């Protein structure tokens, strides 16, 4: 039997989840803005939406599609978080090295008491 023969005539048509496309777009924005640490906001929104979309797809019984877009978007969001975290760690290390190389205390000239 083909899948079309098993389907009831009153069943709805499968539709792609709009949240899957949104998760992908937000994940892409998170990856592109990750080096500026601004990628954390769209990444966190994408990760939350991915969980909601996954639950909705499960509850729909297979009538919501877009799982591939959802996975790709979630991966991009996590990569955006990793890039933002890496750039933040690099900035902190550069700041610590700059602070450590500066002279300590007050630096007066040779003739000042």
List the helices and strands and how they pair.
Elements: H1 3-6, E1 15-16, H2 18-33, H3 40-59, E2 64-65, H4 67-101
Parallel strand pairs: 1-2
What can you tell me about this protein's structure?
The chain has 113 residues and is mainly α. It has one domain. It is built from 4 helices and 2 strands, in the order H-E-H-H-E-H. Strands 1-2 form a two-stranded parallel ribbon. Helix 2 packs parallel to helix 4. The longest helix has 35 residues. The model has no long low-confidence stretch (mean pLDDT 87). Keywords: Membrane, Transmembrane, Transmembrane helix. This is DUF4190 domain-containing protein.
Largest sheet: 2 strands, parallel
The coarse silhouette is rod-shaped
| Strand residues, percent | under 5%
What are the low-pLDDT stretches, counting only 5+ consecutive residues below 50?
none
Helix content: 55-70%
Distance between the amino and carboxyl termini: 99 Å
How many strand units?
Answer: 2
The ordered H/E elements are HEHHEH
Q: Give the strand order, joined by hyphens, for the main sheet.
A: 1-2
Mean pLDDT: 87
Helix count equals 4
Secondary structure class reads mainly alpha
Report the radius of gyration as a whole number of Å: 25 Å
Q: How many structural domains can be distinguished in the coordinates?
A: 1
């Amino acid at each position: 039997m083909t899948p079309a023969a098993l389907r009831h005539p009153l069943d709805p048509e499968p539709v792609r989840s709009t949240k899957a496309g949104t998760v992908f777009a937000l994940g892409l924005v998170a990856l592109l803005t990750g080096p500026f640490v601004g990628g954390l906001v769209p990444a966190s929104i994408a990760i939350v939406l991915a969980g909601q979309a996954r639950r909705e797809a499960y509850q729909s019984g297979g009538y919501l599609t877009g799982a591939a877009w959802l996975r790709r978007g979630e991966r991009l969001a996590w990569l955006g978080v990793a890039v933002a975290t890496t750039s933040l760690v690099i900035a902190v290390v550069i700041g610590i090295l700059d602070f450590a190389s500066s002279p300590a205390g007050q630096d007066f000239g040779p003739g000042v008491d």
